[in-house]
Records
---
Amino acid sequence: MGNFLVWIVWFVAAFACLGSGAAVVSFANPFYSALALIGNLGSLAVLYLLLSAEFVAAAQVLVYAGAVMVMFLFVIAYLGRHADAPWAGGPSWQALGAVAAAGALMVEIVVVVGLKASGRLSNAPDVTAAFGSPSEVGRVFLSDHLLAFEITSIVLLAAAVGGVVLGSQARDDQAKSSSGSALGTRAK
Amino acid sequence: MTGPNLTWYLAVSAFLFAIGALGVMLRRSPLIVLLSIEIMLNGANLALITFSRNHADMSGQIFALAVMAVAASEVVVGLGLIVAVHRRKLDLDVDKLSTLRG
């Protein structure tokens, strides 16, 4: 009975995940794409829970579906109608090539993983209740992977500085171009 | 472990990665390209967590958390670039932004 319930949850989460992923790619309005990506991230969090990665699932919902997607929606709302991305015409060589390349990529992944790991995937080992819990994640992060933890902080700092620099340069450009156009109208 | 075999999770992850790659190659709006890159990163994260469960080793989950931090940084810089492009009154189209000389 428990087994059956896990299958049902897996089916719903996996198909919600794939369906919302296809929706992200196919919507013309980026606002709907971003909303579909929130659904995608939420259903992925359910899959993470099924794989007993509780902390990663919580971080996924908080960081990704929460913070990152709010930033996305904010920028899309700021751009307004300039953000619209209508589909360009009928099928072109570029589109056909993209579909073929994506299909080849998927076949490649499936073949490589199937060749390398198919024998070991069928029987996953039993894990204790502590596996994936916040305390265990913290212990591993601050002992075995301390360097990764520190480098992550540097990456986040660099991204914050980069965001500020890009924002301030954009403001300078805008000030320059608006004063230039004011001068131009005065010369006329 | 009850429920589906770990192979099914990997199949979902490969499918997600392919959908994301399709979006990156097919769409022209930089916003949707960024969203598709997020899908690709999440496909990779799902594979990492599946293999972490398969080996009963937490390192894969740590790696997934690091990927999440890198993805957040990438979104900050990417959205900053998109806003900067928009303020220079250029079209938001990756085909037309091929030189990025402003």
Note: The radius of gyration of chain A is 23 Å.
---
Amino acid sequence: MRAARQRLALEPSPAARMLATLVLAITVVISLAPFFYVVSTSLKETKSLFSYPPRWIPDPVYLGNYLALFEKHPFGWWLGNTLAISAIVTGLKLVIDGMAAYALAKLDFSGKHAIVTALLISVAVPLAALLIPLFLITRSMGLIDTRLALILPPLANPLGVFMIRAFIAALPDELIHSARMDGAGEFEILRRVVVPLIRPGLVVHATFIFATQYTTFLWPLVAVHDLKKQVITVGISSLRAIFTVDWGLISAASLVAAAPLTIIFILFQQAFFQQSLAGALKE
Amino acid sequence: MSVTNTRGVNRRRFLSALAGSTAFPYLFRAESTRAAGLSGKITMIKGPHSADEAKYEAEIIDDFKKANPNADVDFTTYDWANMNAQLTAGFASGSPPDVEYLVDLVYPAYAERGLLQDMTTLVNDPSWKSEHDAIQPFAWELAKSSKGTWGVPVLGAVYNIFVNLDLLNAAGVANTWNKSYPDLMAAAKATTKGDTFGFSMRTRVSDYAFWDWFPYIHNAGADILNKDWTANGLAGAEDAMQFLIDLHKAGVTPPVGSVDWQGQFDLFKAGKIAIYHGETPEINDLLTTPPPFKWDVAYAPPGPKAQTVMGNFGILSIAAASKNKDLAWAFIKHWASGPEVGRFAGEVNLQVVRTDIVDKLYLDKPPMQKIQKDFVPRVKGVQPHPKILTMLQQIWPVAESAYLGSVTGKEAIAQMGEIINKLAA
Amino acid sequence: MEAATSPSHMTEEEHRRQRFWAAARHNLTAYIFLAPILIFFVVFMALPVVWLFYLSFQHDGILAPAQFAGLDNWRRTFSDGLVVKCIGNTLYYCVLAIPTVFVLGMIVALSLQGVRRGAALLRILIYFPTLQASLIVALIWTFMIHPDFGLLALSIRALTGVKVNFLGDPHFAMPTIAMIEVWKGLGFWSILFLSGLLALPSDLYHAAELDGAGSIRRFFSLTLPLMKPTFYFGVIFATIVNLQLFDSVFVLTDGGPVNSTATIAWYIYRSLFTFSDPGFGATLSFLLVIVVLALTALQTWLMRERTP
């Protein structure tokens, strides 16, 4: 505890501390207040987004929206699919990106420059543009309307490679050299030496991938048509019938959909920040 | 009838039975719902018209299966907001759904690319004539182009006006507001006070605002294209456009674009808009949760040439790549038949294009009846040109800037005309 | 990587061969590491991109057989006024959103840095908006800016008396979307900058304090320069992502009003699905790639370190 105190020992002045508290209070209010209305709408038996005059507190409190999600719609399927697919993609991505990042950061080999350039260029390509060719390729592999179609293409995005590469590049070369001297193979070095040191970076990366997969919309929309195999974003979008949008239902759906992601984020960020502080304590 | 020996009788009976069974398909080829033997599985895709869409479709499919126990229909929906993406993906896959419900704005582009089956021979089959003729001619016009008939029209939504009778009565304009455009303007001004507005129509491109704009254009005798689909620069629509601009500049509407279509409906329900451009399915909402005022449905005042109503309609088409077109056709005929389409329309509060069931529909919903009987015959719909959606979406920003007061009616129509001419070329 | 010593008992020939195989083995190891990403990359990214390039020289090719179009699509791209507007809108949005979220993110990160109790909870609460999908963000903000009782609309009216037409006025629409995206991204950037701040070496700060440097001075002379790598990565990442703005536009404005929120990615989507003009959409995609690459290169060059 003392050491942690030491780390943050540059005590901010009372004025600075008050300012920080004010800033944080405002930020939390701004970040959360808008959700209040979503919560309120989800507990009302209403299809309208607005009522005149606005009733802020739902009275009576109506749970039918939440029930309808699971009774009238395959909401459970959507949640399950999304969680499973996001988890699988995250796990695979960590391995794939980690390996590639290590090679790019610490290994010398011919063709390195070309590969880096190619990967870098592709980061700039928007997903919206790739939809149709991707669809046709996926179809020719017979994967349309399968969950594999939602798992495999996202593995190709090289953005994460660069993120992890930056973390690995920051590690001193001597660390790697001495491990090699000790006779370790590259895989072992990656596993035993590099990964433990860049764990915070990996956690950040994992959180980012998971969140991105969880909220991805366009590709599942085009690739999967069976509602039972669909993910949560497209599922919620399909709740919008044409003429009267059921805002109560959609509000409830959005909140329930946000819950797992929030929980996972909480778990991840605990690990990440603990690592950060621990790392700083080493000094 | 001479009695032959048993063998002869048997043979004759056998032969006639044989003849009958071969004649059977010829007699009932187009009426295969009566044959107990249609088999196979088809898929159908449609946009949802209610939250219970699947349930209502299941009713139709179950009835179909009663007549065709070996057939099955797999029903899916597309998302209205992403309809084009999903349909395009479906067509691009090479195995699209066999039966597709397509709206008039969208099907022409697919028809032009040969993705839909030309149904001219099917719909003109003499054995289906009575059914064919039960569907109004204007609906068939919407389903045709010079190159073929692309589907069977089944449903539509009329874009009617809703009026708050209490507000109109209080301002003394209840009887005059829709007699002419100046009367409409006067009524709108008379009913605008405080936070209440006299008039509203859609303005945002994301709300497909052109539906509310069309009647005024059609009432001036103008249209996007000529009858032969050549371009005419929207000639004749300048005054109508100017009128709409004037309405929006007169302060009788919510600030342009500040509220979307849903928001406008909410405002109307709260009694804050006197004359509101809406869609018939909203009647369902008004009947289930009655607002605290008396309301009615109406259509726009007459223009110099006509007094029309706008509507948008859907057709049931067969994919050109379908592998079971016979079953698809049988199912479409079933779907479009009086009892089925009538029940469905009643469940989702849409208009039908058949004339024979109109008297039995909406007996408990006077406004819907009024629309079905008085409004639908006045409908002048879109021209199903392959680029119609593109044209409408590309000209709409001009309308937005016009409503905001940046251009006059004449300039707006000129700009729109240019865009249309380029696209139609 | 050279061997430390060269054994004297090997001939020149054997020596060269040994180095060759060592290098080959080395390359092989590297490629094994790269194999997974490269396979997926080629199949699901490179191939579609090549296909797209091919499509840019065709009419259609997706719903109907491709017809060779030569440079038609490219010519159209350069003569289409909406393309210019899209590029302008997209850049305008980046200029609005990126500096704003960086400044606000840093302010929040600095405030979070000194927090001792409840830091975890605060981080979660602040990150909550970032986790939401576009549809729910759109839903939330449709409420917030509603002229009659949106929280934000009412607050502005209370403070300034002005009734802002957020999404209806072509001058305000893009700034409104920028505001929404900043709100959504604030959590991410705050946490990112916070992790950068936490990694800064404290001894430098101690030394500076002993030297009598006040906190403001420490911030400008120490913190900002030390955070440069984080900022550099951030700017490039933010630029790449924000140049592809699509979701909010698609859900909230569909490019309007008067095309003031039309972005490049939006126009690409339109061309592919609504205007059914894949050749044009493909060409636009390449234009976007070029714009992103150009900006990234420019930024990298501007931010290049003097010392390697």
Note: Chain A touches chain C through 101 residues (CB under 8 Å).
